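[job 4471] stage=fold_predict status=RUNNING
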Amino acid sequence: MSPVAQVRAAELIATRRAGAYHHVTFVAPGIAESARPGQFVAVAVGGPTSANLLRRAFSIHKVTPSGTYGGTVDLVISAKGAGTQWLTALRAHDTTDIVGPLGRPFPLPAEAAPCVLVGGGYGSAPLFWLAAALKERGCQAHLVLGAATESRLFGVVDARRAGDSVHVTTDDGTAGTKGTVAAVLPAVFRETGAVVAYACGPMGMLRSVTEISAAHGAVAQVAVEEAMACGVGVCMTCVIPVTGNDGLTRMVRSCAEGPVFRGDRIRWDAFDGGRCTVPEDAVGAQAMRSH
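[job 4471] inference complete, writing structure tokens
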């Protein structure tokens, strides 16, 4: 069972550039001690008088349960909109508040097993913490990092420290193998004999990882990147179609039932150009369409 989420006033103690991204560290005791790889936090943006009422959700890059300042939480942010730009403009000792840990973490193998960890862009942020947790269980961790171009990669140096092997791909060939992660994944499965794949990144990449994993007899555990408005399961804006143990498809909340799902349970056929639709055979689909 996931730990109960907490709300914490969080002080920024460090911010630094990491290629195209910002790597920030907040003091967040309680959250740091209870979080697990694959979970996320929802961060308030804009300050107390801001019109930005909705929080921004970020995968947890890593935690330090204790230290000089108390437990800390590290996040990787791509400053695209007003909220994330406000966050990345914060200076040391500025504060905001954070809710977490949220969501379902990556499930770890019961026994030692070779694993492949795949990250797209800054989606690789939680994978290094996951790699450390896997190694504590005697598992091998083989990392594959992909991005559109070299500046959009995150954590290549960290990956070389954390992984038993590392493969890098870029769409334009500016670093590593030219192409997507699909260009190297089949070979990685053959060479490592991996039985589990973990992935975090764009939905198209997660679908590809799921399909390649299945072709090699491996189970894919994927952390989806659906937009989350509230982060706590209330607003229902992050629902995706997932098939349950009973074979029925239901629209479930990425923030509460996820963000980690078995890849082969997600109805990838419902995603078209980044937009998610409700499959006709989903439970309650007719009722949804009648409103």
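[job 4471] summary: The mean pLDDT is 91.
[job 4471] exit 0
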